[in-house]
Design brief:
277 residues; single chain; 0% strand; 9 helices
Length: 277
């Protein structure tokens, strides 16, 4: 009981920390709506605590199948921290912020090529956007997309090299996939494979589709502006994190389908009759 409470409380604090990080790290005159940020941090911490404190699953998937959710959290944390420190360098430069700003400039420069996701993000900005803002958005998009790729490759390595999730024992579908009902909708293996492929394909396409759709919608609604630092940080982080999270979910579901299919194959071989000559 004490271990579960401690783990749930720690996870809640970590979620609150990532929500409040930009407001805590950026200069005071650049952070507005502090009360809203504090409220969101408290709500996020409370929901996370309630999810991990109870024995019964609700909405969080793969909560007992590390390191998937840990990789997701680390990826989002790195995106928010790196983008925040790189942005802070333009207002209150220090040695640390200069390092992250330099990394962002290098990654942004080499990831900005024709038809790349970073180039499409720059293209969704209004035509009157200043060169300085465009360069900041380019650097942020390049860094966030690089972190997303690294997180996906890390989880893929965990699956292929370390046998996720079987190294920690049996995989409980009910606990780790609370919104997936294995008793309805046909064969569970086909459903997992289908859902996994859909998530993986959407995750690959979304970094390209989102800027294109935003640019097309700018003719009907006010175009998106990323002039405010916190708006830019969270927009770019969401643009890179959500597709990466969907790809990892797709890989996980296809892996679970592979394990179920392998278990069925072994069971059918064990049940074959023995022919005596």
């Amino acid at each position: 009981m004490f271990r579960r409470i401690t783990g749930a409380f720690t996870r809640g604090i970590l979620v609150a920390l990532i929500i409040a990080a930009p407001s805590l790290l950026l200069p005071g005159y650049m952070t507005d709506a502090t009360e809203i940020v504090a409220l969101l941090a408290i709500v996020g911490a409370g929901l996370t605590f309630a999810e991990y404190y109870t024995n019964f699953p609700s909405i969080v998937e793969f909560r007992d199948a590390p390191p998937l959710n840990r990789l997701r959290y680390i990826a989002l944390l790195m995106m928010v921290l790196v983008l925040t420190l790189a942005t802070k360098n333009a207002y209150e430069p220090t040695a640390i912020t200069a390092i992250f700003s330099g990394i962002g400039q290098v990654v942004g420069h080499y990831s900005d090529f024709p038809y790349s996701p970073v180039r499409l993000v720059i293209g969704m900005l209004p035509d009157n956007t200043s060169v300085v803002i465009m360069e900041r958005v380019r650097d942020a998009a390049g860094v966030a997309y690089a972190i997303a790729l690294i997180s996906v490759l890390a989880f893929l390595g965990s699956v292929r090299l370390f046998g996720w999730p079987t190294r920690r024992g049996a995989f409980n579908v009910w606990v780790n996939l609370p919104r997936f009902d294995p008793t309805t909708g046909g064969d569970v293996v086909h459903r997992l494979q289908r859902d996994g492929r859909i998530n993986a394909v959407l995750g690959i396409l979304l970094p390209f589709l989102i800027p294109t759709l935003v640019r097309m919608a700018s003719d009907l609604i006010d175009p998106i502006t990323l002039n405010h630092p916190q708006t830019m940080i969270w927009t770019i982080s969401a643009w890179a994190f959500l597709p990466a999270s969907m790809i990892m979910r797709g890989i996980a579901m296809m892996r679970i389908a592979e394990l179920i299919e392998e278990k069925r194959r072994c069971a059918s071989q064990d049940s074959e009759p023995v022919h005596l000559l």
